[in-house]
Amino acid sequence: MSNIILAIDTSMNYCSVAVYKKKIYSLSDYCNKEHTIKILPMIKKILLLAKITFKDINYVIFSKGPGNFTGIRIAIGVAQSLSLSLNIPILGISTLAIMAEKAWRKYHQKKILVAIAAGIDKIYLSKYIKDSRLLWIGNKTEVLIHSDDIKEETKNLDNDWFFVGNGLEKFNSKNFFNYEKIKNISPNAKDLIPFSLLNIKNKNFLHFTKLEPNYLNNIF
């Protein structure tokens, strides 16, 4: 079987799509609350750029959260529909892990603290480390915390840690972090591709009926 992959992310304020067909084709656009309007035209456009049709897709992968509740449901709905109609495997990956992968791609950092603002006074937080096999370790560190607890949660981190996401800037974490190491980035569908290739190799894709969103806690 060929490894043509469609990746979708609508978990935050951007919509992004990517296709892997020996190389990566990707599109990203600021959506705010227009995910429903923009995501399907973006998928059609990325297929045209990659010169493929829906029937050529072998796998679909998406960002399963945490993040914006509506955005996560949109991604799941689109991915499930494609998986069912095309009879192809499907997989959801944590938004926090995707952002760690983006930090690796853009800044070549291996120890990533990811923080996403979650409502008025909460933060989705995770600590991801890329190990010697270049695999991400950290899914069990994902938590939803109160913003007042951020200093306690991160007090033992050494200077090798790199911070990404909007959760740290929002709560004035620059008072106790090296502000130069904080990057407010958003997830991108192209950073789902490395997870896809690994899971294809390990045959870890799922049936569309077994998907579960990663809300950590539904507060949106």
UniProtKB/TrEMBL annotation:
Similarity comment: Belongs to the KAE1 / TsaD family. TsaB subfamily.
Protein name (record): tRNA threonylcarbamoyladenosine biosynthesis protein TsaB
Metal-binding listed as a keyword: no
Taxonomic placement: Bacteria, Pseudomonadati, Pseudomonadota, Gammaproteobacteria, Enterobacterales
One GO MF term: transferase activity
Keyword hit for Transferase: yes
GO terms under cellular component: cytosol
A Pfam family per the record: TsaD
GO BP annotations listed: tRNA threonylcarbamoyladenosine modification
Keyword field: Transferase
